[in-house]
Structure formats: C-alpha cells, structure tokens
Amino acid sequence: MSNLPKTAELVIIGGGVIGTSIAYELAKRGMKDIVLVEGDTISSGSTGRCGGGIRAQWSTPENVRLAMASVERFKSLESELETELEFEQGGYLILAHSDQELQQFESNVKMQKSLNLDVDLITPSQAKEIVPSLNIEKITGATWCPSDGSINPFLLNFAYARAARQKGVKIFQHTKVIGIEHKAQKITGINTDQGKISTNQLVNAAGGYAGFIGKLAGLDLPVVPHRHEILATEQINRFFKNMIMSFEYNLYFRQVMDGGIVGGQTNPGELPGTDIKSGLTFLKEMSVKLTHFIPKLKQVKVIRQWAGLYCTSPDAQPILGKIENLAGYYQAIGFSGHGLMLAPRTAVLMANCIADPDFQDEDLSRLNLDRFKHGIVSGERSVV
Ligand SMILES: Cc1cc2nc3c(=O)[nH]c(=O)nc-3n(C[C@H](O)[C@H](O)[C@H](O)COP(=O)(O)OP(=O)(O)OC[C@H]3O[C@@H](n4cnc5c(N)ncnc54)[C@H](O)[C@@H]3O)c2cc1C
After folding, report:
1. How far is 181 from 74, CA to CA, in rounded Å?
2. Final residue in a domain of this structure, among 258, 281, 312
3. ipTM of the complex model
4. Are 301 and 235 contained in the same domain?
C-alpha cells in the first residue's frame, strides 16, 4: 500500500535525470514538500538507456551554452553529490565526409568559438593522431573539442535522486500519473494509479511520454517519441577514450571505462512510437559501420543491444519553463537525444524559474514553448 501524500507543494513527473536533477536543485533552494512520482523505477527510461556522451559541439548557440554550463556543473558534481560519477573529459571527435559538411562544421566552430568553446577544425591526419586506430579513408576533416566527454548515466541519476531525498524530496516509484486536474487555467492536482495528490504546481519531466502527460493536462505539445538503438561489446583493453561521431554515417561510439565499446545510431525513417525493441537490422548496420571506422573491432563480440526513446521536438532543442494559460504547469521536455548532457544546467534554470517568478534568462525564454507560435525558424542540425 503506497503512502502517497494527499498534498504537495510541487509534483515532478518522471524519475529520469531531468526529474531528479530538478528535484535536487529545488530542494537545494529550500523548497519543501516536493514529491517526485515515477511510473516505473528511477533510470528505467531513456536515462538508463543512453550513451552517456557529453558535448558542447552543437549548431545552435542555446544548445552550446546549455552544454558548456552543464560541463562546468559536471566538474564539481562529484564533490557536491559526494559520489563517483565516472565523469571523464576525453573529448569528442566529429568526422566530416564531404567538403560541404566541412563548410557546415567551419561555421559551427566559428559560432562555438565565439562562445569560448575550446573547439578546432582539424585534418584527417590530426584526427588519426588523436585515435590512432581510426580509419580516415573517407574523412575530409573533423572537429575536436577536448573538454567534451562522458559520464555514467546511472551513477548520475541515482546520485541526484539520493541527494534530493536527503534534502527532503519524497520519491515514489511504481506510481504512474493517469490524470491531471486543472480549474480556471490553474493546476489543482494529479491522479496516479496509487492515489491522488492535490498540488498547484507540477513539472512534466516524463521524457518520451511527455506528450502523453501534456494530453492529460489538455495540452497538445509538439513532441513525439522516437526509438533509438544502441549496443555494447565485450570488454577489451582500452585504446581510446574519446567519443567518435559521424552525422553522415549517423552514429556515435566510445570505449567506456571498463573497456566495452558502446555505440548507437538513429535508424533512417524511424516512425514516432514508443516501441523499444532492438533488432537484427540495427545490429548488422552498426557492426558494419563500427568495423569500417575501427577495423580492429572485427574480432570483438557484441554482448548486448537495447533501445530507448528520444523525446523529439520540432527544432531538436529542449522545451523549457512555464506556459501561457495554465498556471503551475512547468516542463523540461523535447531533449531530442541530448538530455543527459544538458541536465545540470536545465535543472538550475528550471529550479530558478519555479522558485522565483521574476527569474529571467535568455536561454530559458528562447527555449520556451511559445517559440513555435510563429513556426520553426531554425533548428539544431548536429543530431544523431
Ligand atoms: C539510446 C539512447 C542514447 C542516448 N545517448 C545520449 C547521450 O549520449 N547523451 C545525452 O545527453 N543524451 C543521450 N540520450 C538522450 C537522453 O537519454 C535523454 O535525453 C535523457 O535521459 C532524458 O531524460 P528524462 O529525465 O527527460 O527522460 P527519462 O529518463 O525517459 O525519464 C522520464 C521518466 O518518466 C517516467 N514516466 C513516463 N510517463 C510517466 C507517468 N505517466 N507517470 C509517472 N512517470 C512517468 C518514465 O518511466 C521515465 O523513467 C540518449 C537516448 C537514447 C534512447
């Protein structure tokens, strides 16, 4: 029998890294009576299924700024949360395969440098110096940012959840939101399969199910779930610690600390949906691509493959903050495959916006839902 409280100051829906980090930042600011409800278990969603990559090499200034500020937070989070997170700044090497792509990279690097990112356009042979086993045959150049890196998503999410609990946040797993009540354009409560909570504030942090939560509140949110597949190989001696990415080949991969190679791709033509089966087509395609880039992986066995959901927004950027006409409703959704790396800064912005009605921030307002009122102006292009 669940001991779900009857009332709460604020309810966070979703126990992925977005929900737990917002819970932690709010509790840190002194907010009391926060309840987080998770339909399954902490990290059972995309957070526990992701690649753990962290990069600031994006094509929109908003994403670059959010990621750079998150990297700064990642640096101090291990001591702040008092635990090992396997945070490592091994760098991201993003490969170009045509002169046209190189031109796009050049303009990205110019914008990124203007925001003080330590990124450079490099030649194929410089890329090979960074990863000696890399096949550079079809590569026209690359971008390299040594401060990009990776983290263990489980350690990060459990650390945020634990720290939030220590600060008084009540976390209920196996508690699924099935209804949202509102009256006179104000949130009044949520219904779960374990009972009802009266509240005037909620945060939609439901990842791939954010659109469904929106519908419960009477909102038609412009987000859709998309399956994304990923695999891991057996452990081998560690020979590189960078993330390697190619938009042309639609993949990313890295060698994690224990020696396994972890990599994923976006399946061309993947339709929206919540199916998270992982199949043979993906396994075959990834094996061909991985062994093209690192031929010595031909002898290495894949031991696991799985899938998770991207919560995709129309411009591949997150949708943050409050909305018009429904007081007390907040959202941090639509991360489009890069929510783990943006979580620390997102959580700070969301907590500031919830705790202080007068809080202003350029990125928070640019990433508000109302940006779609006049159509989609531009979007993030550097997505796998
Ligand atoms: C294969 C893959 C690889 C990825 N690689 C990277 C990467 O390298 N770097 C990166 O930054 N990002 C990556 N991502 C994206 C990243 O995983 C997500 O953007 C991030 O984890 C989103 O966190 P979240 O908390 O919003 O969502 P989630 O982790 O999905 O959490 C949402 C939670 O809400 C819960 N929920 C849903 N509906 C309800 C309900 N009705 N009631 C209660 N709870 C509910 C779910 O059970 C879930 O646990 C990847 C994603 C995938 C799938």
Report:
1. 36
2. 312
3. 0.99
4. yes
Is residue 331 located within the same domain as residue 347? yes
Residues with CB under 6 A from ligand 1: 13-19, 37-40, 44-47, 49-53, 176-177, 205-209, 213, 228, 230, 264, 308-310, 335, 337-341
pLDDT digits (tens, 9 = 90+) for 153-200: 999 999 999 999 999 999 999 999 999 999 999 999 999 999 999 999
Domain count, the chain: 2
**Residue whose CA is at the smallest distance from ligand 1 atom 31:** 16
Q: Which long-range contacts (CB under 8 A, 24 or more apart) does 152-155 make?
A: 152/52, 152/85, 152/86, 152/257, 153/17, 153/43, 153/47, 153/48, 153/50, 153/52, 153/340, 154/43, 154/47, 154/48, 155/83, 155/84, 155/85, 155/86
Compute CA distances 143 → 105, 146, 160, whole Å.
Answer: 7, 10, 32
Residues 303 and 160 in one domain: no
Q: How is residue 211 annotated by DSSP?
A: H
Residue 77 lies in a domain: no
Q: Separation of 18 CA from ligand 1 center, angstroms?
A: 8
